[in-house]
Automatic annotation (TrEMBL):
Residues 149-174 are annotated as: Disordered. InterPro entries: GpU-like_sf. This is Uncharacterized protein.
């Protein structure tokens, strides 16, 4: 099972749109769009950082540990209750499908950070839910040209740095 960050954020976006109908489609795969939304609450889904562990296998693979952020922004009367309710709903939705439908190996909650910011003249609350997502991605294999010609030089004993014999090899091509 291999995945990309784009596939993962799309899967989380779809999961949250289905699980949180009260947000009425204001779930975005963006670190900015939800903050700019004219209607709040809104939710942004994006990657914060990623650690890699290269596996020496054939074909080579990377096991990745993505820190995924799901950021809820809200304002107005009852802002704290809205942030808490939506952060809980986000956590419940993510924990209910820890492989994102088989796309990733596992997902676990890492924490929730709640803060307050200014958006023009109004105060906006933010609850960022962080989750760890483990997945694999195949390493890109470079395209190599066929081995057509090899040049070989020999420095016979005793070695003195001078070329004593030279040959050109043309391997059979399929």
């Amino acid at each position: 099972m291999t995945a990309t960050r784009k596939q993962i954020t799309k899967a989380v976006e779809a999961l949250l749109k289905a699980a949180l109908p009260t947000v009425e489609g204001r779930v975005y795969r963006s670190r900015v769009r939800h903050i700019q939304s004219k209607r709040l609450p809104a939710i942004g889904v994006y990657g914060l950082k990623e650690a890699l562990d290269a596996k020496d296998t054939s074909p080579p693979r990377y096991t990745r540990d993505l820190t995924l952020a799901v950021e809820v922004v809200a304002n107005g009367e009852g802002m704290d209750d809205t942030l808490n309710d939506l952060a809980d709903a986000v956590e419940d939705a993510l924990v209910a499908d820890p492989t994102l439908g088989g796309l990733v190996q596992d997902l676990e909650m890492r924490g929730i950070e709640i803060s307050l910011a200014e958006k023009g003249d109004e105060l906006v609350g933010c609850a960022r839910v962080d989750a760890g997502v483990w997945y694999e991605r195949a390493r890109q294999q470079p395209e190599l040209d066929d081995f057509a010609t090899g040049g070989v030089r020999w420095d016979l004993a005793p070695p003195d740095g001078a070329t004593d014999a030279e040959d050109t090899i043309h391997p059979a091509q399929e």
